[in-house]
Amino acid sequence: MGEVEETGPEVSLFQKGDMVYYAGDINKSGSNSEYQLVDERIVGRKPENLTPAQAAAMPLTLLTAWEILFDRIRINESDKEKSLLIIGGAGGVGSIAIQIAKKVAGLKVIATASRPESVEWCKRQGADFVVDHQNLVQEVQQAGFNQVDFIVDFVDVNQYWDAMVALIKPQGHIGSISDPVENVNLRQLKGKSVSFHWELMFTRSMFQTEDMIRQHHILSEAATLFENGTITSTIKEHLTGFSTENLKQAHALLESGKTIGKIVIEY
């Protein structure tokens, strides 16, 4: 999140002084830098009702969640009231995915969480059901779902693969953002004609895809959703001071594997 300081001669979407938010491009310097060079096609206008910290927390996870739901497993208007299992509901991506799935797509959302504070967080984001990931198949079925229409994994595709295979409906869709350390046996999905989709939010900018401007449109649409109260920022930890100590603390929180929502360091 930041203010446009300068624009190139071919820029048409923004001008100097505009407040914007974006996730950036892993081929360029990251967000620990004071100034960034960023392609306008992956930038959106900052939501007016969010503080700088609240806005900064959102683009990476929002784009990831939006793309996996609408661009990868291709949820659309006809899918309203269908069921979605979100593995990792209290994390950064899971938190905003719950909101988008429930409040934008109109799905019945089942999210995983195991600690009282993470269960409560998922409910606040809009989850209809919260289940314990430690006995996933039984927990989902006890919630009233023998199988589900969609599954998205934000934790570990290897750890939950057998459960996903068992829980997905015939002709359903599974998406994942995790990095498997073992092979994934896609053959197990063949009998049900289930499709599997990877999502990496940086793909469009890495490969300069023809539809790269899609991220500009997503962020702009989301800005309106923030402003009208449909979705809210998922910031949970707010550290003040761009210091080495705060950077270390933020990374330690992330590496703990128990982070709820998003962490932001503000000047």
Automatic annotation (TrEMBL):
Keywords: Metal-binding, Oxidoreductase, Zinc. The keyword Aminoacyl-tRNA synthetase does not apply. The keyword Ribosomal protein does not apply. Residues 2-265 form the Enoyl reductase (ER) domain. SUPFAM superfamilies: GroES-like, NAD(P)-binding Rossmann-fold domains. Belongs to the zinc-containing alcohol dehydrogenase family. Quinone oxidoreductase subfamily. This is Zinc-type alcohol dehydrogenase-like protein.
